[in-house]
C-alpha cells in the first residue's frame, strides 16, 4: 500500500488511503490496515482490557526512529505556515541565551541566595559552583542531543527516540513540572514580594492551608497571553527584560563587593578568615546547600524545547546551553559572595535574609527600594519563560499520538493556540489555589529525573541503538543496571551511613552496614559504565546529517561523563525527604496512568484493526518523503520565479 504525504492535509482527510486516521501536522504517526492481533471484536467488553495490555506492551518496547524525527522536522519546514514565517520568528543565539538566562537567574539570585545562607554560610559560593558543575555534566548531554535531534520536546523526544515510549512519557511529565508548575510557583513568590512592597495582603485565605492568590493569577494570565500572541512579541519582551535583570544582578553584586573591598572589617565580615568562618556547617553543609541550589539552575534546558525554531541548531544549541550554565553560575555565585559580605552568618537567622534585608540593615534605603521594585518588575520574566516551552512540548507529544490531537493544531501564525490555551488555563488554576511550598522539592526531583533520562539517552545514542530500530541488548542491560547501582549508592544507606558524619569531622555514629551498601552501589556504578564501554557500538560520527559540512558538538568521555552525571544527580536527590519522593511518585503515577488510559480507550479501541508499524514502513516512508521534499522544493522555486 503506498504512503502518500500531503503538504497540508485537511484535518478530516486520511494521510494514508483507506485509513480512517486523520492527517497529523508535521508528518505524524503513520498507520496501516493489518490483520487483527486478536479475534476479539474491538467493541466487545474485553477490548478495553486488551487495549490496556497492548498499550503497556508497546509502551515498554516501542521507540521512535531518529530518522523519522528528522523527517518530521524537514517536512514541517515545507508547510505553508512555516514557509510564510519570516526570519523574526526564528530564534538566534542571543534569543536562546536570553530565554535560558532569563528563566534561570531570577529565582536563584533573588530567592535562593538568602535561603541557603543559614545552611552553608559563606561556603554557599562553592555550593553554587558545585551545583552548576553537576548541571554542566548533564548539560553536555543536552548540548549534543539538542544538536543531533533539533526537535521540540527536549528530554521527551530524546528519551522516546533512544529509550522507548514510556520513558518519553515520563520525561514529558518531568518537563511539565519543570516548566509549567515552576512558573506557577514563581508567580506566587512574585505576589509575596509585591505584597511586601505595597504593604498589603493580595490573597484571600480560604483555610489555614489554602489561599487564593489573585495577583499571581493575573500575572500567569498575562504571561500566557503574551506567549499565545506569537513568539515574536514574546522574545522581544524576553530580551528586554533579561537585559534589565542582568543589570539588577550586577547592581546587587557591586553593592556588596565594592564596599567590602574598600572598607573591610569591622564594617564587613572577612568571610575568608579561617576554615570555621567559611565552612560554619562543615563541608557537609556546603554539599547540602548544593542540593538546595539545584533549583537555581532549572531552566537551562528550556532552550532544548525550542530547538525546532532555532537558527542553525547544530551550532547554536550547544552554545546557548553552555552560555546559560556559565552565565547563571557566575552571576549567582558572585551574588552569593556579595550577600555574605553584607550579612554576617551569625546574625542571618534560621530563615536567612534577602538583599532587601541586608540593605535595610546597613541603612541603604534607596538600594533596598531599587532591589524591591526591580524584583517585582523582573520576576515575571521567569514566569513568561517557564511557559514558552510548554505548548511546544505538548505539541510534540500530540503529534506522536500520546495525547489528543488538538494540542498540535496550529493557527495561521504557527502558534499551538488550543493546546497552549488549555495548558495555560490549567496553570492559572494551579497558580490561584495550590500552595507551592509542598511541590517545590517535588519539581526538583522531576528535574533530576529528566536529567538522568537525557544522560541515559546519550549513552544509548552513542553506544547502543543509535536512534535506530535495532537494539544493543548488552548496552541496554548495563544501562538499566547503572540506574539500579546509582540509586543504591545515592540512598540513605550512603549519606546517612557515613558521608554526613565524616564530612563534618565525626565518625562515631557511622552505620558501617549501611555504608557498605552505599559503597557496593558506587562500585557497581563504575562496573556498569565500564561494561557499557566494552559493549558499545560507535553509531554516531561528527556529522549532523548527510551532506552537511557543519560538525556537531560531541560530549566528551561518553559513557563515563553521563554515567558520572547520573550518579551525582541521584546523590543530590537523596537530600529530599521521603514525603517529597512519595508526592512525586503519586504525581507521576497519576500522569502515566492517564497516558495508559488514553492509549487503551482511545488510541487502540478507536482504530480496532489498525496499528502502527515502524519497521515495515521505514524504507517506504523515506522513499516517499524524498519525493515529497523534492516536490516542495520545486514548488518553492516556482513561487520564487513567479514573484
UniProtKB/TrEMBL annotation:
It holds the Pfam family AA_permease_2. Residues 1-52 are annotated as: Disordered. Residues 32-49 have a biased composition (Polar residues). The chain crosses the membrane at residues 91-113, 125-145, 157-181, 214-231, 243-266, 278-300, 320-343, 369-388, 415-436, 442-463, 475-493, 513-532, 553-576, 582-598. It is found in: Membrane. The keyword Transmembrane helix applies. Gene3D superfamilies: Amino acid/polyamine transporter I. It comes from the Eukaryota. InterPro entries: AA/rel_permease1, CAT_C. Residues 553-602 form the Cationic amino acid transporter C-terminal domain. Keywords: Membrane, Transmembrane, Transmembrane helix. It is a multi-pass membrane protein. Residues 1-10 have a biased composition (Basic and acidic residues). This is Cationic amino acid transporter C-terminal domain-containing protein. It comes from Tetraparma gracilis.
Amino acid at each position: 500500500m503506498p504512503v502518500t504525504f500531503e503538504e497540508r492535509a485537511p484535518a478530516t482527510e486520511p494521510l494514508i488511503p483507506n485509513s480512517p486516521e486523520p492527517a497529523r501536522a508535521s508528518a505524524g504517526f503513520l498507520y496501516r490496515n493489518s490483520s487483527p492481533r486478536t479475534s476479539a471484536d474491538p467493541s466487545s467488553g474485553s477490548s478495553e482490557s486488551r487495549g490496556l495490555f497492548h498499550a503497556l506492551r508497546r509502551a515498554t518496547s516501542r521507540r521512535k526512529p531518529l530518522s523519522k524525527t528528522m523527517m518530521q522536522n524537514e517536512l514541517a519546514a515545507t508547510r505553508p505556515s512555516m514557509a510564510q514565517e519570516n526570519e523574526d520568528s526564528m530564534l538566534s543565539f542571543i534569543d536562546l541565551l536570553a530565554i535560558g538566562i532569563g528563566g534561570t537567574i531570577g529565582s536563584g539570585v533573588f530567592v535562593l541566595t538568602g535561603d541557603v545562607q543559614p545552611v552553608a554560610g559563606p561556603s554557599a559560593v562553592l555550593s553554587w559552583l558545585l551545583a552548576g558543575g553537576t548541571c554542566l555534566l548533564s548539560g553536555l548531554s543536552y548540548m549534543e542531543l539538542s544538536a543531533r535531534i533539533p526537535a521540540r520536546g527536549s528530554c521527551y523526544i530524546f528519551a522516546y527516540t533512544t529509550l522507548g515510549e514510556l520513558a518519553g512519557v515520563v520525561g514529558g511529565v518531568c518537563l511539565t513540572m519543570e516548566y509549567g508548575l515552576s512558573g506557577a510557583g514563581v508567580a506566587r513568590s512574585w505576589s509575596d514580594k509585591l505584597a511586601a512592597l505595597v504593604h498589603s495582603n493580595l490573597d484571600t485565605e480560604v483555610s489555614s492551608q489554602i489561599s487564593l492568590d489573585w495577583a499571581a493569577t493575573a500575572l500567569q494570565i498575562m504571561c500566557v497571553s503574551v506567549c499565545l500572541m506569537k513568539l515574536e512579541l514574546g522574545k522581544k519582551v524576553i530580551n528586554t527584560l533579561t537585559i534589565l535583570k542582568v543589570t539588577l544582578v550586577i547592581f546587587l553584586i557591586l553593592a556588596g563587593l565594592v564596599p567590602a573591598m574598600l572598607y573591610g572589617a569591622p564594617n564587613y565580615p572577612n568571610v575568608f578568615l579561617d576554615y570555621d568562618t567559611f565552612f560554619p556547617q562543615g563541608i557537609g553543609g556546603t554539599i547540602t546547600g548544593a542540593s538546595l541550589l539545584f533549583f537555581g539552575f532549572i531552566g537551562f534546558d528550556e532552550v532544548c524545547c525550542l530547538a525546532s525554531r532555532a537558527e542553525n541548531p547544530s551550532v547554536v544549541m550547544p552554545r546557548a546551553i553552555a552560555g546559560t550554565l556559565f552565565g547563571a553560575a557566575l552571576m549567582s555565585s558572585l551574588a552569593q559572595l556579595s550577600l555574605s559580605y553584607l550579612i554576617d552568618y551569625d546574625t542571618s537567622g534560621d530563615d536567612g535574609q534577602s538583599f532587601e534585608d541586608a540593605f535595610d540593615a546597613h541603612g541603604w534605603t534607596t538600594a533596598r527600594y531599587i532591589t524591591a521594585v526591580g524584583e517585582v518588575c523582573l520576576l515575571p520574566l521567569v514566569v513568561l519563560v517557564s511557559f514558552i516551552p510548554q505548548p511546544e512540548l505538548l505539541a510534540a507529544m500530540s503529534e506522536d499520538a500520546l495525547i489528543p490531537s488538538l494540542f498540535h493544531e496550529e493557527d495561521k501564525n504557527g502558534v499551538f493556540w488550543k493546546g497552549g490555551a488549555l495548558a495555560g488555563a490549567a496553570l492559572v488554576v494551579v497558580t490561584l489555589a495550590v500552595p507551592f511550598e509542598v511541590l517545590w522539592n517535588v519539581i526538583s526531583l522531576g528535574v533530576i529525573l529528566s536529567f538522568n533520562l537525557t544522560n541515559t539517552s546519550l549513552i544509548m545514542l552513542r553506544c547502543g541503538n543509535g536512534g535506530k530500530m535495532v537494539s544493543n541488548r548488552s548496552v541496554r542491560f548495563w544501562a538499566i543496571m547503572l540506574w539500579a547501582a546509582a540509586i543504591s549508592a545515592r540512598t540513605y544507606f550512603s549519606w546517612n551511613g557515613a558521608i554526613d558524619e565524616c564530612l563534618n569531622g565525626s565518625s562515631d555514629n557511622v552505620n558501617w552496614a549501611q555504608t557498605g551498601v552505599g559503597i557496593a552501589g558506587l562500585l557497581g556504578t563504575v562496573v556498569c559504565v565500564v561494561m557499557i564501554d566494552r559493549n558499545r557500538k560507535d553509531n554516531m560520527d561528527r556529522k549532523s546529517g548527510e551532506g552537511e559540512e557543519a560538525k556537531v558538538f560531541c560530549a566528551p568521555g561518553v559513557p563515563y561523563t553521563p554515567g558520572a552525571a547520573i550518579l551525582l544527580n541521584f546523590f543530590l536527590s537523596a537530600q529530599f525527604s521521603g514525603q517529597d519522593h512519595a508526592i512525586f511518585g503519586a504525581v507521576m503515577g497519576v500522569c502515566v496512568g492517564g497516558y495508559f488510559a488514553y492509549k487503551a480507550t482511545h488510541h487502540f479501541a478507536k482504530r480496532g484493526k489498525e496499528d502502527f508499524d515502524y519497521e515495515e514502513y521505514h524504507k517506504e516512508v523515506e522513499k516517499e518523503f524524498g519525493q515529497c521534499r523534492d516536490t516542495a522544493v520545486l514548488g518553492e522555486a516556482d513561487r520564487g520565479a513567479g514573484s
